[in-house]
Write a structure and sequence with these properties.
- It is built from nine helices and 13 strands.
- The chain is α+β, with helices and mostly antiparallel strands and 310 residues long.
- Among the domains are: 75 residues, Roll (Ubiquitin-like (UB roll)), CATH 3.10.20; 62 residues, ADC-like domains (N-terminal domain of TfIIb); 30 residues, no CATH class.
- The strands form five sheets. The protein has a four-stranded mixed beta sheet with strand order 2-1-4-3, covered by helices on one side. A three-stranded antiparallel beta sheet has the order 9-10-11.
- The longest helix is centred in the N-terminal third of the chain and has 16 residues.
- Bound molecules: iron/sulfur cluster (3 copies) and FE2/S2 (inorganic) cluster.
- The site of one iron/sulfur cluster has 14 residues, from α3.
Length: 310
Amino acid sequence: MSNVNLTINGQKVSVPAGITIQEAAEQIGAFIPTFCFDKDLTAPGACRICVVEVAGMRNLPASCVTAVAEGMVVQTESPVVVEARKMILELLVANHPLDCMTCEKGGNCRLQDYAYRYGVTGGAFVGEKHEYLPDSTNPYVYRDLNKCILCGKCVATCNAVSERGVINFAFRGFNTRIATFMDADLKDSECVYCNRCVAVCPVGALVDKNMMGKGRIWDLEQKQVTCTFCESGCNFNVNYRDGKVVGVTAANAAAGRPLCLKGRLGINFMQNPDCIEKPLLKKDGEFVAVTWEEALGIAPILEKLKVINK
Ligand code: SF4
Ligand code: SF4
Ligand code: SF4
Ligand code: FES
């Protein structure tokens, strides 16, 4: 594939033809914020937080859907770009609960991060706010659409599995929201609680209910493991706090997101207080703990297995 030469923030770069400005900027470490773009999903070019300034262009193009071109001169944080991003963020926070102090996503939220970066505190626009009732009717996913920024990633990832398509955009204008069929609660929908949508949501609109209140992102230590429940062997992160498992999250886009419920909730087996740690043998009417050697020595089926194994 041929290369294209362009200038980003005064730095000359040579990148493969066909890639986007956002990808080219990423290659040289130039920051561009994104909400709706995800390299493993789609690039709908909807949120426009990723706009950049390109010399000769009248408008600010969305960098996640604009391909690089020979001789392009790009600015990723010029005053006009920063102004445009501030305006988008002001509009978002004008219709947002802004309860970062207690929000499960606090410290791990793109809206919060970008508002901090661009000094957006809210108040530039005052208007009607949504007052949706959060959906807490199922044991796995907590949905608070008041915090939704309509990036569409949850819809894209749910629809990426052909038999799913549980959620989609519904209603219009100010009332546009992500909804299930007939706008039912998740528990009354076809949702299988795979948590793909939770994994991609950039804000606190979708939260893993099992991890609520169990720690901020910086409180948790993550260890990547491979699930052994089935032959798919999905990779995921087991999250620990103070040495105790508090939940399972996606490890990476390719393998982590399609985790099934079994993989996500298998931690319950790991820390089940009723789980026996030693074999038990009934002696004089009572179960007593014995060694594995003793247990294997008397269990006929295991004896047979030993023979087969020889
Ligand atoms: S979703 Fe983000 S910005 Fe909104 S309350 Fe939660 S942490 Fe704050
Ligand atoms: S949990 Fe899975 S099935 Fe349910 S809405 Fe999210 S992505 Fe779709
Ligand atoms: S729920 Fe989250 S992922 Fe879905 S559209 Fe809203 S902000 Fe985006
Ligand atoms: S991230 Fe580019 S338009 Fe949303």
